[in-house]
Structure formats: C-alpha cells, structure tokens
Amino acid sequence: MLNPKNILKDKEIISKLFKKGKKEKSAPVLLLSVNNDFETVLFSVSKKNIPKAVDRNKIKRQMRAIFFNNRHLLNNIKNPKAMAFIYLNNITVEYSVLEKSMNTVLKNTN
Fold first, then answer.
1. Cα angle at 55 between 66 and 24, to 5 degrees?
2. Which of 1, 39, 50, 66 has the least C-beta neighbours within 10 A?
3. What is the CATH number of the domain that holds 42?
4. CA-closest candidate to residue 59, choices 43, 70, 48
5. How many angstroms separate the CA atoms of 10 and 69, rounded?
C-alpha cells in the first residue's frame, strides 16, 4: 500500500512545496503540490491543533487510506507531483467529512 519511495522526506522538496506549491483547500484539508520527478506524498497534522498523539496518528492514518483508495483520481495528471496534505481543523472530524474534502481536493489537482 505505502511504498517507501512514495513518502516525501526530502527537505528541499518540502521547502519548495511550502514556498512555491500550488494550494487547494477544502474544509479541514489543504493540499500543496509541485511538479517532481516521481509521485511523493506527505501527510501532516499539527501538534498545536491536535494535542493528543493518538488523535493525530488516527487522522494521518485515515488521510493515507483515503488517498490510496482514491488514487485513481490522479490518473489524469501528466506530470508526477510532490504533494502535502495538511489537516487544518482544531477538532477531529468524521471519516466521511474527511473523505469528501480530500476527494474534492484531489479532483481539483491538475
């Protein structure tokens, strides 16, 4: 499901994402994307917004599952991208709400 080469770890690409990345926002999720050599993904939940590690890990796990289940929405994209999904809400939301917002963001990515 999660291939280690698909995990975004490169600090240069991460800083490029936050400086020059294209932003797509829907409810509790913000997507930053920039063209890259191959597809990489980063999932982030702020410790400031969600103080309990259990809740942060649950949200990240749900975001990963939603992304990999709906990866087919990215098939129309010609260039591979480095993407960062950032959770913005101060409280946890239901899975269905998170799924709806992530699908909206993925559909708008071009």
1. 45
2. 1
3. 3.30.230.10
4. 43
5. 24
